[in-house]
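Open question from group meeting: does this chain pack into something compact, or does most of it stay loose? Before anyone orders reagents, we agreed to write out a predicted structure and look at it together. Recording both the input and the output here so the notebook holds the full record.
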Amino acid sequence: MRAGSASGSYWSCQVTESRLLEKLRSRIRSAWDDDPLFIDPIVEPGLTANQLSALRRAADETEKSGIPYFIAIVPKMRDTVRSRDVWDRFTADLAFRVHEAGRAEQSIVLFTMAESSAKTFAYVVDDNGPAMPPDSAMFARSASDDFLPLELSVPHHLRTLVATAQGEELPPPPDFDTRDVGERDEDYIEATGLDNGNPDALVFGAAAVTALGLSVWLMRRRAKYSWRTSLTTSPDPVKDERLPQRVDGALEPLPEPSESDDELWRIYDRGRRVQDALTAIMDEHPDWADDSDFSHRFGVQNLLTTLEWVRKRLRGTASKKSEAPRFCFLFPHHRHGIERFALRQRGTAVTVDLCAKCRSEINDGHDPECLMVPQRPGAKRSKPVPYFQRSDVYAVAGFGSFQPLEDAVLDAHGAVSARGRQR
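Structure tokens returned:
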């Protein structure tokens, strides 16, 4: 009976904790668009005027760096292994969401529990995800190895984050001693009368271990999402599938249907449009096989694959039930298990063709790798972006998710299609 009661109490605590975090997330989410400094209403009445003014000055100083930032001063959380793990992921997830909403190259996000400067999570966030500066757990310490009060800890964290983001030398820790420097175990809250925290060394030790574990988790996340910050260079269909050698043969005349089968003539007409689209791409981008913008390579691959299916149907070497090839919206190289899928994109959803691998990644809560191309084609330096964030023919077609690629290419070039050809 007692065991059951204990189990029920534990479960109740977990549910309560989850609800509190969800409410805190909601308060933070509704605040970050309006003010980059969020002080939870639960803790604000307990802060001194000196602390409040120091926080605002720190926010103003960070504003001058030009780097988007968000500061959250929140209540103390339960100090258990599970609670620390939940809080780690909670802050990292919110940090990335804040960054995504700002659309900047880098952002600074700081979470501090008002009752202990040792419980601070400081992030520099880019498109790979949030990262903690090296030895960030030590930023809660002063030059004399004492814990910093809130009004010193937050400004020091922010200066360190700005220096990290800008690649500058980190600032030295501020001077702060308890009244009796010889008694390092003295509680600085009692020493200064602030009554808003606890510098217990054991608490710091737990925070340091947690930070170390979280850094490993963040490094894994950053490695997983490193594709976001560079152009796609692999796989390379030019080398893997010998695209240039296949193009010449693809432009040879198609075999005309030997019977008056409307479906075969529709397939024949599509093949002619694909050939016209191939010619248009190569005329406009003669260096398509060498261009660092891989959208052209995958565009040619898309059209060649479609054309091969056309020839097989016209020659009768493919079943009448065989369908035209389909391509993954996120990465057209993926073709296994293609199905229609409602993909969420910046607050909306679009129905696209997705492969089994990408659907699985999304359902597991991850962002699958997608085709990354230059935001400004032809520029010497251009930020990598997902191809569908541009407005060219590949984005318009979605590699077949929205319309056949050949139709998008011919529409863009004003070419005469093969529809209505005389039979």
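Observations to bring back to the group:
The beta strands are 37-39, 69-74, 107-113, 120-126, 129-131, 339-345, 348-354, 372-374, 384-386.
The longest helix spans residues 2-31.
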